[in-house]
Amino acid sequence: MCWQAIDQGASGVDMGRNIFQSDHPVAMMKAVQAVVHHNETADRAYELYLTEKQ
Question: What UniProt keywords are attached to this protein's entry (predicted)?
Answer without folding.
Answer: Lyase
